Here is the input.
Amino acid sequence: MGVKKTNKSQFDFLVNVGLAIIFVLLGSLLYFYFNVFDGGVSKKPDSWSAFGSFFGGVFGPVISLVTLFALLRTIQLQKELLVTQSTEFDALSSLQSEQLREAKLSDYKTHQLQLLHQQTTMLEQMQDRYQQEAERIFLHTTEFHGTKAAALQDMDNAIVDSEYKVKRLIKLSIKVSLTTYETIEQIRGDVSEGLKSIDPLFVESDIPNE
Here is the structure.
């Protein structure tokens, strides 16, 4: 922005200087013409023709030179404008790409958290079924050679195991939620390793891709 203002100020200054030079030159030409020649306004057509030739011959090239300078300066300003627009376009494109990357990263992170929530819900439902089965065994199964006690012990172990996995899944969900990731691969790696550490049955193929 500062460069634009500086260029505009310089251009305005040069234009003003050019106009001042033109007016000064015009006044000087008129002064010298009237002082060198008859010093008054002539009524003769030939005098006016000579005045026009003098004025056009001397003043015309100056106007052409100033016009050429203004044209060159305009072309330079157009080039600077194109460069500025190109820079701004590149910056906007980069910003849009970054926003798209962050959006994809956020979507993938949300999908992984949904996956962990589904696994947690599934284990909680299994835990409820284990408890219901333990109550059924306790109330309706007749003990025979210790099978009832063994069955109850199995249900208790399953409940404890599911509670442990639910806690680990919740901790993993919190970790993924609070961690700032730079790439999708980082999210995928944390979720994959976390699930495998909780239960070997959680394999990488269970994790949705990008």
User: Anything to note?
Assistant: The mean pLDDT is 79. The chain has two domains: 2-98, 100-206. Helices lie at 2-36, 45-140, 147-178, 184-198. The first helix runs from residue 2 to 36.
